[in-house]
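quick one before i forget lol
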Amino acid sequence: MVDYFQERGFNTVEDADRSREEELERHIMRLMADFNLFDEMGMPNQLAPPASPEIVNNLPEEKIQETNCGKCDICLKEYEKDETVKIIPCKHKFHSECIIAWLTKTNSCPLCRHELPTSDPIYEQYRKEKKRQKEREIDIENLHNSMFS
């Protein structure tokens, strides 16, 4: 027979407490976004944390097959034949040393500012809420345009 906690997916009291803490954190982040408290606290001006080490270590690599096929936009040196470069999710290529050094300081692409995941749960929650806020603004604009056009 299944007990109360197993039925709800909790194994221990610590799991239940952790679940409540995560839910409370989600509600606080949503409240902060709804009342623009991120702006008042200066979070948009805050530097982004470094990219997650797991993401950085697992970036795909590519071997350069020909000469004069571009340059690294961080160090501005041309790629050499048979050199290995790393490719980040937005498909930009960089020397391995250059992009690893860059991503240990910030989580975004140096060219297009595409953000990679971080290990900071507060910053990740902030990103989710900002994305949700932009989607909500687009939905409101679409609704307004459908009503008045």
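fyi The two ends are 60 Å apart (CA to CA).
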